[in-house]
């Protein structure tokens, strides 16, 4: 039996039919007629010297040889498609596709992106706001901004500035609740998106950091950080604001951080891309722009007393 590979079109027809277990659905996927698809599979079976499908009434099923071939054919076409997409992206020097969480996209990227566009008019940005962990090749993503602990094996990763939380509120609310003690009487908001942090960066921990034993039990809870921040900007209450989500609101005066004490988590935002891709001009330009933008508001972090959450006494 020869090891010579059969035609790629025949293997592609087999892969589609094996995934759908239907010649008609496979033909529709490949935009060919069922007769043309059946011809390709028949030629593949002749090349192999054995049937790959049992043709039953109104359905097909794989033979033993078909079951042996199907996983490799599927993986092979997925690998080919990923390589093709990678090659196309290397040649596409104008488009940069970035994925980040919805809150980071809304509160950090979107308000600043005009600056990048003005500095790099030749780069067309595409954003995919999602918390789903995307695949750089399969999802055609160039850059990912992700929050968590890492590590990030197999990719190029740049940790961004350390992440902290501190109570933020409108200037009017700050005037009404001028001290941490008075904050126990304030309407408090809860950002549940950071409940996964360990140790927790929550209200009881922050109060312990400033020497107060207090566990708030009531107040609106938000699953998205940007929604919690928007509620604080509207004057609905005080939120433990995450640096990336509130830094621009503080810089612009819509929110204030009057108590000067923040909790630092080891979780950080990271800039991620495929290893080696960081050298591509459009990716390097985006990374350098993000780092430069972060530095513009570093004075706000520098003005805070930042306490590692691990150093806060346990309850």
From TrEMBL:
Keyword Transcription: yes
Gene3D superfamilies (UniProt xref): Periplasmic binding protein-like II (3.40.190.10), Winged helix-like DNA-binding domain superfamily/Winged helix DNA-binding domain (1.10.10.10)
SUPFAM superfamilies documented for this protein: Periplasmic binding protein-like II, Winged helix' DNA-binding domain
Taxonomy, superkingdom: Bacteria
GO biological process: DNA-templated transcription
Domain HTH lysR-type: residue ranges: 6-63
Pfam families named in the record: HTH_1, LysR_substrate
Coiled coil: none
UniProt entry keywords in alphabetical sequence: DNA-binding, Transcription, Transcription regulation
Single GO MF annotation: sequence-specific DNA binding
Family the entry assigns: Belongs to the LysR transcriptional regulatory family.
Alphabetical list of PANTHER family matching this protein: GLYCINE CLEAVAGE SYSTEM TRANSCRIPTIONAL ACTIVATOR (PTHR30537:SF26), HTH-TYPE TRANSCRIPTIONAL REGULATOR (PTHR30537)
Protein name as catalogued: Transcriptional regulator GcvA
């Amino acid at each position: 039996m020869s090891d010579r590979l059969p035609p790629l079109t025949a293997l592609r027809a087999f892969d589609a039919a094996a995934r759908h277990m239907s010649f008609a659905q496979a033909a529709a996927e490949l935009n060919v007629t069922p007769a043309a698809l059946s011809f390709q599979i028949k030629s593949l079976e002749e090349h192999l010297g054995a049937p790959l499908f049992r043709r039953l009434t109104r359905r097909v099923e794989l033979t033993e040889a078909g079951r042996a071939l199907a996983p490799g054919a599927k993986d092979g076409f997925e690998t080919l498609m990923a390589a093709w997409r990678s090659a196309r992206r290397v040649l596409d020097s104008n488009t940069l596709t970035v994925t980040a969480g919805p809150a980071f996209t809304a509160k950090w990227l979107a308000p600043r992106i005009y600056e990048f566009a003005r500095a790099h008019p030749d780069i067309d940005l595409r954003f995919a706001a999602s918390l789903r962990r995307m695949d750089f090749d399969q999802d055609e993503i160039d850059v990912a901004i992700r929050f968590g602990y890492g590590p990030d094996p197999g990719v190029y990763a740049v940790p961004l500035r350390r992440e902290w939380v501190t109570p933020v509120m409108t200037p009017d609310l700050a005037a009404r609740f001028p001290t941490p003690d008075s904050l126990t009487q304030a309407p408090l908001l809860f950002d549940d998106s950071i409940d996964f942090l360990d140790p927790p960066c929550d209200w009881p921990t922050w109060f312990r950091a400033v020497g107060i034993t207090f566990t708030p039990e009531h107040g609106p809870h938000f699953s998205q950080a940007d929604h919690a921040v928007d509620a604080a900007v509207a004057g609905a209450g005080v939120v433990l604001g995450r640096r990336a989500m509130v830094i621009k609101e503080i810089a612009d005066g819509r929110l204030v951080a009057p108590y000067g004490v923040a909790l630092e988590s080891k979780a950080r935002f990271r800039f991620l891309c495929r290893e080696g891709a960081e050298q591509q001009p459009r990716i390097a330009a985006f990374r350098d722009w993000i780092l430069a933008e972060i530095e513009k508001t570093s004075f706000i972090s520098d003005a805070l007393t930042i306490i590692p959450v691990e150093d806060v006494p346990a309850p």
